[in-house]
Amino acid sequence: MAFGEIHPQSPAQSITGIFTSEILPALAEGGITELVLEALFYDPTIEQDLVIFYKTGQLNEKETPALLANIELYTDADLIKSLLLKARELGIRVHPGGLSRETAQATIFQRDFSRREDLRLRAQGEITQNILHKINHLLEQGRRVAVFSGRRHNDIHPTPADSVNGVNFGTFLQERLGNAYFEVDLMRGNNIRSPIRPEDVPQDGVNIFQEDNSYTLVFPQ
After folding, report:
1. CA angle at residue 46 from 129 to 153, to 5 degrees?
2. Phi-psi domain of 116 (left: phi exceeds 0; alpha: psi -120 through 50; beta: other)
3. pLDDT (tens place) for every residue of the chain, 221 residues total
4. Where residue 94 sits, what CATH number does that domain have?
5. For residue 209, which phi and psi values (nearest 5 degrees)?
6. Bridge-based pairing state of the strands 214-219 and 93-96
7. Do 130 and 97 touch, CB atoms closer than 8 A?
8. CB neighbours of 140 closer than 8 A, spacing ≥ 6?
9. Structural domain count, the chain
């Protein structure tokens, strides 16, 4: 099951808090034991700090400096911290699925990243490959896995350009897992994209749109 978000520009746009409070408990109840996060660098220091975090429950500069520094790069850092704490409480193991540090330095940390399609495609392509590698490794161990990443990566029906550019893992997982793979996009009312329209945003609760094994859950603003 792969959950996709629209990356937020502010904490108010973030879906992470809703994912933590509404989705994670349901995943744990359904038997999911592993969660791959795009937000975490695909790096040995992050893996090591996650081991310490799961042993101690500590997320600070002394015990887990690399993990904490990674999280604090994001505008919704406090929500990501809460996600990790809730996952640990529920018995869900978090795994990194983002960029390597080297690629991050060469792409997303460049001043002209937002203007250069070559850098964006390089970053998105590596994220796709790292997530796919981690998922396949966990599946081979017989684990039940969920993913939380950008919505461009998890599509069952990607755009032709995304298929050509290698920024999508959804089609590969559907080929491997068949109907056991689900794409679930998460949006909130102040951060929506086509085909969701403003009138599709609920005042409360959640609106669900489905096409085959592809779902979009729309939450209030």
Report:
1. 25
2. beta
3. 999 999 998 989 999 999 999 999 999 999 999 999 999 999 999 999 999 999 999 999 999 999 999 999 999 999 999 999 999 999 999 999 999 999 999 999 999 999 999 999 999 999 999 999 999 999 999 999 999 999 999 999 998 888 888 999 999 999 999 999 999 999 999 999 999 999 999 999 999 999 999 999 999 98
4. 3.40.50
5. -120, 135
6. unpaired
7. yes
8. none
9. 1
